[in-house]
Queue: 2 jobs
Job 1
Amino acid sequence: MSALAMNETLTIARLGQRGDGVAETTDGQVFVPFALPGESVRAVRDGERAQVVEILTPSASRIAAICPLFTRCGGCVAQHMGEGLYAEWKRQQVVTTLGRVAAGVAVEPPLDAHGTGRRRVTFHARREEDGMRIGFMAARSHDLVAVEACPVLAPGLARAPSVAQHLANRLGGSNKPLDLQITASEAGLDVDIRGHGPAGNALRRTLTEAAERLDLARLSMHGDTVVERRAPFHVMGKAAVTPGPGGFLQATARGEELLAELVLAALPKAKRVADLFAGCGPFSFRLAERCHVTAFESDKTAVQALQRAASRAQGLKPIAAETRDLFRRPLLEHELAAFDAVVLDPPRAGAEAQVRWLAGSKVPVVAYVSCDVGSFARDAALLLAGGYALERVTPVDQFRYSAHIELVGVFRKAAGRK
Ligand SMILES: C[S@@+](CC[C@H](N)C(=O)[O-])C[C@H]1O[C@@H](n2cnc3c(N)ncnc32)[C@H](O)[C@@H]1O
């Protein structure tokens, strides 16, 4: 903190996008982590940020955090918000950003997609004076907060901290910081280690032995399988899918289900659907229960996982899958003409190149699943300019207690519009 730090009373006017309380002062906005609207707080200010020293008048919406590490660990920012305040804060993030391009659009209250909790976690590990430490990064700092348990994780990850600690100890010869990504699959824990150099034979033996001892389903380094004792899998509709090591998965099983339900509800009459940015197929498999699906995805391993699972699944309509970079090679007009609905679920950057082609297409309905409201708003503006109407926006909250929010937007083009 600088020598200019001041101790003063601040009144919190609203919540910012990241969950900080925001006070309006004569010097401009001041961001106050863990303070709530309506509260008066005594705080130490440093520039445009302030730390609470004492809450003078607590908000009626303040609740007790569920985790003793809350405020130290950088993973959660919102455990102190009561349910109503929390849901409205998340909804407003969508309303505010989207309002710039689609002012009148109805944004529904967020759907709670936490379910039984997050099915994937990444622990950081690094050497400290007393040995290897595993944990999460503290907020706005390079400090590591030691974590022995995390209440937002699904029950299948209950032993993830001790697994991460054991593996970090085994890898402790390296001074490099490591990331240990652990996923709870139906066949047990699926671990991908990043940050370590390539595994030589000796290290592979050590890790294979550790996987036995920890009863892991699979252990990989940088996406390269070291040992697969049981194929990890996830049930997606009528398919059992084994994603590539470290491959993308929605954060919670409930989130994946809810997103798929919203997508399916948007296209009740579709017969031929393009699933863009399809990953290993969570939407494709559910769509294929009633329509023909063509999946496009740039990650070859994900496409192979989808194809393998499709070849084994029973009772589905045909699913074709193609490895394709949709930023560089979006589907063009004549290709889009083969579909009566398009689903897209791009990474945070959005799908500008693809959406430019979609905007000029005649595809009657587009279900856009987004993990970044900023890029969604930019892409939505292109679709609106192309003659689509944004019918509905449903925020989906898979990342409970974080500032993150996802959404499904349904766009429809009236018949006859070009
Ligand atoms: C948010 S994930 C969604 C995946 C899948 N729909 C799901 O629900 O699991 C985004 C996907 O886009 C893929 N992707 C990223 N860049 C891409 C690109 N340029 N072209 C095609 N796919 C891309 C990623 O590999 C990832 O699978």
Job 2
Amino acid sequence: MRASQEDFESAMNQVKLLKKDPGNEVKLRLYALYKQATEGPCNMPKPGVFDFINKAKWDAWNALGSLPKETARQNYVDLVSSLTSSSESSTQVKPGADRGQQEYENLVVTSEDGITKIMFNRPTRKNAISTQMYQEIMLALKAASKDDSTITVVTGNGDYYCSGNDLANFTDIPPGGVEEKAKQSAIMLRDFVGTFIDFPKPLVAVVNGPAVGISVTILGLFDAVYASDRATFHTPFSHLGLSPEGCASYTFPKIMGPAKATEMLIFGKKLTAGEACAQGLVTEVFPDSTFQKEVWTRLKAYSKLPPNSMRISKQVIRNMEKEKLHAVNAEESSVLQERWLSDECINATMNFLSKKAKL
Ligand SMILES: CCCCCCCCCC/C=C\CC(=O)SCCNC(=O)CCNC(=O)[C@H](O)C(C)(C)COP(=O)(O)OP(=O)(O)OC[C@H]1O[C@@H](n2cnc3c(N)ncnc32)[C@H](O)[C@@H]1OP(=O)(O)O
């Protein structure tokens, strides 16, 4: 959801009430986002080198380039919200604390060495994402966006990274019938993917094994993807009477070119980790025997980099695209709302659930 003028004004008031000084770096960021949101790109003359304070302010504002006013307003509101929640919350999780094992039924969430790790934890179902698990992932990401960690990692427990949407989600029909279920699911899907689009910190996938469906498509919204050489990447949408989600209809052609994206998204070609890396979906592949050790050593080193700089760099890299990604997400969700009611989809799901079919 976009921040309204009212949200913006309320955030400005909250800044005045902050109990703790947020430090110069954050104050400069607030200043820059405020100026960008209210006046647009910086076109003031650059202050002289000895005018330290005004030069720092000018630099911070100027660094936002042509960031749209609405995005700056949203970022200002997000930043203030992260400041107020961190100064108010007495139960805030510090890196090093293990949290969440009681809070989440389908995830294990831990925070250590500046890294929050969100681990899918339904290994006996190959980490298929149930309706409740979609909600838990959204909650865990929202919490991670506000905690003290610098990097957030998503990974899977067991031999699979994730087998995608839990096909049993299709069987839990509410009193409003299957149309109502499709409508609710489209809203949930849009919110779920939107949480990844808006995630403010570096987001890394540690793909420990095969990945299917929505767990693959959303990788296009991550900042880095490290894969074991045991991992595979499979989006069998046509086999299931479905169509792409997770913004893959936009990110995949951009990442790998339209021809390779077609093979994955329309023909359901399963890629090895090496192929996915060659096509730009995966950052780097590691031998399974040393995967965990090598990846976590690297992530621990990255987590020591200055957090604000990493967040701002992510903003600069991603923000111009956010509007587009939200539009793609809305369109994909609305197309799927229809697909879920199609005979092609219903038959494929029934075949899987009655054990007549597997991928
Ligand atoms: C109208 C309402 C709509 C509601 C929708 C909500 C929003 C959805 C948005 C996203 C939509 C779709 C995107 C996708 O993700 S499509 C991809 C869906 N995934 C699959 O089709 C995978 C299905 N699973 C398999 O083909 C195989 O299980 C496997 C992953 C290849 C693994 O095979 P295996 O032989 O190694 O292991 P297996 O014995 O089959 O698995 C162990 C048990 O786990 C169950 N299971 C695995 N994956 C799923 C799954 N995705 N959904 C449900 N159950 C799954 C499997 O059935 C086994 O169970 P059991 O031990 O036999 O009882």
